[in-house]
Amino acid sequence: MIQSSFVLAVISRKGGVGKSTLARSLAVQALIDGHKAAIVDADEQGTCFKWSKRRTVKVPAVEQLDGRTLREAIDGLKGRGAEFIVIDTPPHDQPIIAIAAETANAALIVTQPFPDDMQEVRVATDIVERAGKPGGIVLNNTPSRAHALTLARAALATFPMPACPTAITHLLTHPYASAEGQTAQEREPKGKAAAELAGLWAWLKSSILV
Question: Is the dihedral of CA 150, 17, 82, 184 positive or negative?
């Protein structure tokens, strides 16, 4: 059950993990679930904002900061009725990551299952813990090889946050959908990506969005 106007910060300390793709996929999944969803694109690259310009529908609303504080942007979306707001944050060591964690109700840390990515998870969990907010971790862009996932899950067990039992597989439908201004579950509603995103959403609702 989602609280009124729940804000989720999507965080990664490393670029290239598919954070923006996952952020907009979650917003669309919230729409599918019957919630008014929006995205604050706090990344100067504007990946989600540019994606929204390729869409043929106006939802979810996607806004950049445009000189506003993160709180001001969120309050504006809440005032327009947004029930679920995703903050797409920039990677690396930028102050906006900590601000997003402090402003949001909870955070989702995104990582690929490879050593270069996993070594940055600890810093991200520390940021969320310092903000005093609940958080979770999801494995994204994962290969189909079971061995890689087994190793990654063992590593995640050492972190002080729950990990989503559903890993998001690296599938070409994600970039294809992005090029069309869609998300994978819109492009292939009965495909594997759609099922995985639905699994992630169900876990978030039961474990994080409470």
Answer: negative
